[in-house]
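2024-03-11 09:14:02 INFO queue: dequeued item DUF3106 domain-containing protein, len=191
2024-03-11 09:14:02 INFO validating residues
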Amino acid sequence: MNKPFPCLVLGLALAATASAAPQALDLPPPAPTSATPAPVTAPAIPATPAALDPAQLRALRSRYAAWQALPEPERARIREAARAVAALPPAQQQTLRQRFAEQDQRFRDGWLLGPQLGQLFPKLQGLFGYLPAEQREPALAILRQLSSDQLAQLSLVAQRTPPQERDQVRSQFLALAPGARDAWLKQNVGH
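2024-03-11 09:14:37 INFO prediction written
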């Protein structure tokens, strides 16, 4: 599969640093010039929870919960990606951080789901971006069971499903037995 390496590494590394690291990476910003925009840096995380406002504390807890929910192989991939980003020259790290920060918030939030789902989340969002609370965890568990090919097919289904049919299509898919998913995906991709 052809993967956009810088985006993948950056998304994984930023997800790792935002949700698993106790403090932000200290990256020296490039020397400002009149042609250089202000640097985008990782926000510093205060040493004590009392220093956070309630919204920051909720966001930090949410990111940590997302990290804890990832399977260990996904966390290992994220740690490796974070090491790869940390090995880059500071200017290149800053460029990647800035490119990531310029992305839509929904795109950035998708990476909290881990490398496999994070890469496809913009395409899956139509079906799985706005789930009722009771469907969220079961849906994530099912999505994490899918192969790369199944996720690619499901992303096509998600993109082709009109908004008024999304709830029905999602419910059908989530109700399937694991052995029936391939046939359902092939049938629905063919439409």
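2024-03-11 09:14:37 INFO annotate: The chain has two domains: 1-108, 114-191.
2024-03-11 09:14:38 INFO item closed
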